[in-house]
From TrEMBL:
Gene3D superfamilies the record matches: P-loop containing nucleotide triphosphate hydrolases
Topology class, membrane: Peripheral membrane protein
Name this polypeptide is given: Phosphate transport system ATP-binding protein
Pfam families in alphabetical order: ABC_tran
Organism lineage string: Bacteria, Bacillati, Bacillota, Bacilli, Bacillales
This protein's GO CC annotations: plasma membrane
Organism (species): Tenuibacillus multivorans
Length: 269
């Protein structure tokens, strides 16, 4: 069974509750032990949008992102209430198969984290786990993923070299290629450019805007200019709450909440 066939069967079981909403979060609360990190979050994230999550440090941005692929529950003290629907299916239910979600929802982290393997093996790793063994198919997936991540030209003659030999910016695009190789429909990005120099940052920003044609992207960033440059919608988080969620242009030019205005004009944070 090919990866696409597996994914089709998952999609068939998951009819969309509301058109164009990929993640629908309702009254989500999350605690780390006694710390109430997410408070009554309500967010409907649209398909094929770039959604930016901004806010000061410690206000719950990463935590929220990690609830969307259920990574947060790897921490034993975590408790949640409320609901998140992915394409109409509640993902916080005990019965929900988290492996299905991880195939559909890829994640890119703050620091590039390639495996200590060759460039080729980094990208082929996911498809191999999903049972693809045919060398020709793997070659095609690797090339397409690297091309789609804007890095093919830089690494096509270095496929057998260890990924650790690439620059930080190249490693991050390689990690994005690795995510694309499993054919997700959502890509979560947790401050993906904060460890990169300005030129690499611009390359990743261009890449993110290009990927929007085929993927829904949710990006946490502490860089407001970046959110304003690349996103369609922006959510402003503060102390575990969503203060405001709107079209990026509106949120930055005409925010409705005083706290949003104070934050985007640099009065705190
Ligand atoms: P942000 O991404 O906005 O910087 P986080 O989601 O990382 O914020 O953190 C939100 C809150 O949850 C903070 O108070 C933080 O200290 C707490 N927190 C985050 N991770 C953990 C953890 N593993 N254990 C306990 N508390 C945590």
């Amino acid at each position: 069974m090919s990866l696409s066939t597996v994914q089709e069967s998952i999609t068939k079981e998951s009819p969309k509750a509301a058109e164009n909403i990929v993640f629908d979060t309702r009254d989500l609360n999350l605690w780390y032990g006694e710390t109430h990190a997410l408070k009554n979050i309500n967010l409907a994230i649209k398909e094929r949008d770039i959604t930016a999550i901004i806010g000061p440090s410690g206000c719950g941005k990463s935590t929220y992102l990690k609830t969307l692929n259920r990574m947060v529950e790897m921490i034993p003290t975590v408790r949640t209430s409320g609901d998140i629907k992915y394409n109409g299916k509640s993902i916080l239910n005990k019965g929900f198969k988290v492996e299905d979600l991880r195939t559909r929802v890829g994640m890119v982290f703050q620091k590039p984290n390639p495996f200590p393997k060759s460039v080729y093996e980094n990208v082929a790793y996911g498809p191999k786990i999903h049972g693809i063994r045919n060398k020709k198919i793997l070659d095609e997936i690797v090339e397409k993923s690297l091309r789609d991540a804007f890095i093919w030209e830089e690494v096509k003659d270095r496929l057998k070299e260890n990924a650790y030999g690439l620059s930080g910016g190249q490693q991050q695009r390689l990690c994005i290629a690795r995510t694309l190789a499993i054919e997700p429909d959502v890509i979560l990005m947790d401050e993906p450019t904060s460890a990169l120099d300005p030129i690499s940052t611009l390359k990743v920003e261009e890449l993110v805007q290009d990927l929007k044609q085929d993927y829904s992207i949710i990006i946490v960033t502490h860089n407001m200019q970046q959110a304003a440059r690349i996103s369609d919608r922006t959510a402003f988080f503060l102390n575990g709450e969503v203060v405001e969620f709107d079209d990026t242009e509106t949120l930055f030019s005409n925010p409705t909440d005083q706290r949003t205005e104070d934050y985007i004009t640099g009065r705190f944070g």
